[in-house]
Amino acid sequence: MTRIAFIGGGNMARSLIGGLIKTGVAAANLRVAEPLAQAREALGREFGISTYADNRQAAADTDVLVLAVKPQVMPAMHAELRDTLQRNRPLLISIAAGVRIDQLERWFGNLLPIVRCMPNTPALIGAGATGLCANLRVTPQQREQAQHILDAVGVTRWIHDESQMDTVTALSGSGPAYFFAIVEALEDAAVAQGMPRDTARILATQTCLGAGRMLVESNEAPSVLRQRVTSPNGTTQAALESFAADQLPRVVARAVAAATRRGAEMAASLDKD
Ligand SMILES: NC(=O)C1=CN([C@@H]2O[C@H](COP(=O)(O)OP(=O)(O)OC[C@H]3O[C@@H](n4cnc5c(N)ncnc54)[C@H](O)[C@@H]3O)[C@@H](O)[C@H]2O)C=CC1
Ligand SMILES: O=C(O)[C@@H]1CCC=N1
């Protein structure tokens, strides 16, 4: 069985570990390094996996090492982990936003097979969306291992051109927040018309869930589903015409471009490390 170690036991690691255990991976094949004692205890209790305060101990003798720490922590980890990784050469999987494969190679060694991933927070409930990108040292079997880990928490797609990983980050990585922002705005709009907030929230939230499920389950294009709601000269048409007048596609495209730029800037800021 493949042994998988996590460095960092925060939200994303927790969701991946939970997803893997649900898919039948034995707890004995999973371990995690986490500096916070309380978080370590919770991970051990909840999942029955081994926990470590020392990253090197967790990284020793593993087949796959998942780096699940914040991007800014990443450069400092190389002093700690490089030797262990050079000895074992496990598959290195990074989920850090805005950290490029060439940077990971520079910090941890360019002989390592590396997969860069961008998951998102719905992974916490098994409804994640992840883009994955591999360097040339990743074998077909390791690609399957990486995909298996991320498939445990949602859908996955391989991205062949790494420069598009910033687009993945801007689309699906940050994307859940865009929908939350729209639900907030819908709720506020209804409250402004006099609706009690709890009623506005449940109606807006359930509408988001219903629309999301229809998108996933109906296999229809979003434009077809949109047209089905839109009666000629009806209420939806009035709202959509207002969106068009306010240039909604342009607003969204500008937001995605801003997030994409920020991802590249985050990577560039790590170039000096
Ligand atoms: N939250 C999100 O929407 C997404 C986050 N990501 C990426 O996932 C990574 C983890 O994010 P979260 O789980 O949300 O963060 P988090 O803050 O919940 O987890 C990070 C964990 O790393 C631990 N840690 C800090 N320094 C460490 C060190 N030196 N060695 C080992 N562990 C250390 C922290 O104690 C914490 O438990 C980040 O790189 C982020 O960019 C990726 C996609 C989406
Ligand atoms: O906002 C961020 O930078 C991270 C990456 C994707 C979601 N959260």
From TrEMBL:
Record-linked Gene3D superfamilies: NAD(P)-binding Rossmann-like Domain, ProC C-terminal domain-like
GO biological process terms on file: L-proline biosynthetic process
Keywords assigned: Amino-acid biosynthesis, Cytoplasm, NADP, Oxidoreductase, Proline biosynthesis
Residue stretches making up the Pyrroline-5-carboxylate reductase catalytic N-terminal domain: 3-98
Catalytic activity: L-proline + NADP(+) = (S)-1-pyrroline-5-carboxylate + NADPH + 2 H(+); L-proline + NAD(+) = (S)-1-pyrroline-5-carboxylate + NADH + 2 H(+)
GO molecular function: pyrroline-5-carboxylate reductase activity
Function: Catalyzes the reduction of 1-pyrroline-5-carboxylate (PCA) to L-proline.
Protein family per UniProt: Belongs to the pyrroline-5-carboxylate reductase family.
HAMAP family linked to this entry: P5C_reductase (MF_01925)
Name of the protein in its database record: Pyrroline-5-carboxylate reductase
Lineage: Bacteria, Pseudomonadati, Pseudomonadota, Gammaproteobacteria, Lysobacterales
